[in-house]
Structures are given as structure tokens and as C-alpha cells.
Amino acid sequence: MLAPAMAEVAAESLAGGRARAARTVLNQVVLPGEELLLPEQEDAEGPGGGGERPLRLNAGVRSRVRVVCGPGLRRCGDRLLVTKCGRLRHKEPGSGSGGGVYWVDSQQKRYVPVKGDHVIGIVTAKSGDIFKVDVGGSEPASLSYLAFEGATKRNRPNVQVGDLIYGQFVVANKDMEPEMVCIDSCGRANGMGVIGHDGLLFKVTLGLIRKLLAPDCEIIQEVGKLYPLEIVFGMNGRIWVKAKTIQQTLILANILEACEHMTTDQRKQIFSRLAES
Amino acid sequence: MDGAMHTDAKSRAETGTESGPRGPGCSLRHFACEQNLLSRPDGSASFIQGVAEKSREQLIRNTCEAVVLGALHPRTSITVVLQVISDAGSLLACCLNAACMALVDAGVPMRALFCGVTCALDSDGTLVLDPTAKQEKEARAVLTFALDSVERKLLMSTTKGLYSDAELQQCLAAAQAASQHVFRFYRESLQRRYSKS
């Protein structure tokens, strides 16, 4: 009695398990466990070229385009395996060969340190020559006292436990403890270092930070027109904001946190209402 | 034999959250799933873990271990905290579903999704999927399976009671068919979440 129902269900489940071409799933939600097929390389030398096609040693196997696998995807064989839930995105290659970059845009709050990311950290310990900074990852990052602008062995920076630090990672991989610095490669601070004592630090999802730091983000322009403010974005999901009064600071914090769930129209309504009052 | 599936009218809810790993300075624990029942749904509290809870914890841990890509996070502990809000039967299957959703929500890299399905066989051989607590108590055998999303393969099975070989195969087939509904629910709820952005 179960047999016919089972046969239909079996067919459906097999269909679900088959790999799909990456191109057809762009901008759709993908789940962990799905496999994606890479686009095949187009044959540059078409037929009819005087019959001068070179003989391939492995006939029948067409070469594939070189594609960069971003966050949320892993290579398995000649396919891509999705490891995180999110929307599949693709970026065309700027120049030269290669099939561009594929990645999964996921919404998560937990941060994994990546080299070169600018983050906001909280100093949790001072041990000898290094500070331990909590950046929201699995290990606290280490920050040397010499990694500040103008710091020497005699002239130590004024950093206490509990201070906020804006810096970037120089070492961040899964095998080593992350290390961060507050100077760039030329030795200049470039905005990094200890963040002032006032203001408010709050946490948002990583996806919202990426959206706010995109080149033409309207939210930041609108917020800037509202009140004069200082704002620092950390790629680890932390935002530090400071305005003239505490009330304005709290309003800005609430707006930024709520931005994630609002549509453009709702946001414009709220901004116009605030601008009037 | 006809199979009946109860998917609604269950007052069972669980929340799964994931808390962060520990920093250096403390001894890192093995990948383990702990169920510290400080508060139970009926209002009682206990600091001692019973053997039943420990064995449930071990089953959930083994399922998660098979699916999570631990190689990407060496020397890191992943903690899944499951709080039972109300228990109306099929608790282990519910825990497995909640654990899977918690891992997906936290962005832990996984090689597949998994779900839990419970089957109960009563004295005249009727197969009931997703049994209530009363049906579980009166059943001749209760079987729980954890299935993965890629090819509906069996990740974990735990059984209690008396059943024959053929009945086991029947229950497994019914569970594989039922897991489809669970995976469809996962997909719909995740699509709804991402549709807001």
C-alpha cells in the first residue's frame, strides 16, 4: 500500500538531489548540501576553421572555466558544494580570463577573522608587550603595543583594559591565533587606533555591515544629513556611534539596527519624521 | 499497512541557540553536545543529568559531527544549547530538527542538512509517524531516525522495543518519505527569512 506513494516520493527526492548549473540558481536561496555545476568553457575555435582543430588527448572532457570559490562554497570534484545557507551571488571578472567569483551571501552574526578586515575590538587583557583584544571570533586577537602610530619602547600608547580599538588583521587563518595592528603598511594610523570614550557600541549582523559599507549606500548619506555624528563600522558586526547628545546617539543606534528589516519606503518615512521633529 | 502522519496539532516547541567557543587559557573540550537540564518543561529543576539525557545528547552529537565541516574550525568548540519548552512526544526528533536549524542560522559550515523522524509501531502493526507521548508509551516499538538531505541516507537510528526485519525497513522507508516534508519546511522558512532583505 505504501509502494505507489513511495515511488512518486522517491522520484521527487532524486530530482531534488541532482546538481544544478550555478547560472540557473543565481540570486536564489541555496541550502547546505546542494551541488552546483560550473559553467563550461566555450570552445573558442569553432568548427569550419579549415579542419585545423587540435586533437584532444582526453576527448569528451571539455575544459572548465577557472572560477574563484568564495565564502559559503567548497570545491568537491569538479562541482561546488554549498556549505552555508544564503543567496548565491556572482561577480563577472573585471579583466582577463576566469569565470569570476561565486559566493553565498549569508546572514549570520558570528564573525570568523579574515586577513585584511577592519574590526572593532575590546581590550580584555594586558600581558607584557601585547594586548588581548576580543573581536567576536573563537580566539581573542593579539595586538602588540608597538603597532600604533608613533609608538616606541619608551613612548607607549595609552591603552587600558576595556578600551575600544579599531584595527585590521595581519594574520588571520584557521590554524593560528589572529593578530591585529593599528597602523597600515606605511606606518600611518589612517583612522585606526583607540576609539574615544563616549558613544555607543552595538552589534548587528554581518550582512548589514556589508550593505552599509557598499559604495553607494543611501542609508549612511541619509543618516549623515540627520545629525552630525561620528561612526565606525567593524566588519565583525560591531558599530560604534557618537552624536552630540545621548538621545540622538540612541536614536541613531535604533535606526541602524532596524534598517535590516525595513524596506526603502519605510526607512524614508522614518527619516522624514525624524527630520521634522 | 497504512501509514498515518501527524504533522500538526502538536504543542511542542523548542528553541536552539548556539553559544560561542571558549578562548585560550581553559582546557578545550572534545566536540560534545551537553544537555544541562536545569529547568524542565513541567516546572521541576534538577542539577543531575540522567542517563536518558546523556544518551540523547550523545546521539545528537554524533549526528551533528557527521554533518558539520569541523576541519574548517580546528581547536574550536561548537556548543548547541537546546531548551525543551514543552514535550508532547517525539522529543529526540524535535531536538535534531532544532539543532540543524540552529547550526544553519549560526552559519556553521555543513555538508548537508539533517532531520529527525520518529516512528511508532503499535501492537497490531500499525505504523504511526510523529507519535504523541501517549502513543509512544502504548507502542510496541519506537524507532527514531536521523536522515540527511542529500540522498536521504541514514545518519543515526535509535530503537526501543520489539519489531521484525520487514517492519524496520518499512519504518525507514516511511521516515524517508516524511523527511521530505521537513526539508521542504526548512527551505520555505529559510526562503521567507531571506526574502525580507
UniProtKB/TrEMBL annotation, chain A:
Alphabetically, the GO molecular function entries are: RNA binding
Compartment(s):
Cytoplasm; Nucleus, Nucleolus
Q: Any idea where the Exosome complex component RRP40 N-terminal domain is?
A: 28-107
Q: Which domain of life is it from?
A: Eukaryota
Q: Tell me which residues make up the K Homology domain.
A: 199-246
SUPFAM superfamilies per UniProt: Eukaryotic type KH-domain (KH-domain type I), Nucleic acid-binding proteins, Ribosomal L27 protein-like
- Family named by the database record: Belongs to the RRP40 family.
Protein name from the UniProt record: Exosome complex component RRP40
Organism equals Prolemur simus
Automatic annotation (TrEMBL), chain B:
What segment(s) does the record annotate as region Disordered? 1-24
Ranges of Basic and acidic residues composition bias in the record:
1-15
From the Swiss-Prot or TrEMBL record, state where the protein is found. Nucleus
Q: What is this protein called?
A: Exosome component 5
Report the family membership. Answer: Belongs to the RNase PH family.
Q: Which InterPro entries does the record cross-reference, listed alphabetically?
A: ExoRNase_PH_dom1, ExoRNase_PH_dom2, ExoRNase_PH_dom2_sf, PNPase/RNase_PH_dom_sf, Ribosomal_Su5_D2-typ_SF, RNase_PH
What Pfam families would the database entry show?
Answer: RNase_PH, RNase_PH_C
Give the molecular function GO annotations: RNA binding
Q: Which organism is it from?
A: Prolemur simus (Greater bamboo lemur)
Which GO BP terms sit in this record? nuclear mRNA surveillance; poly(A)-dependent snoRNA 3'-end processing; rRNA catabolic process; rRNA processing; U4 snRNA 3'-end processing
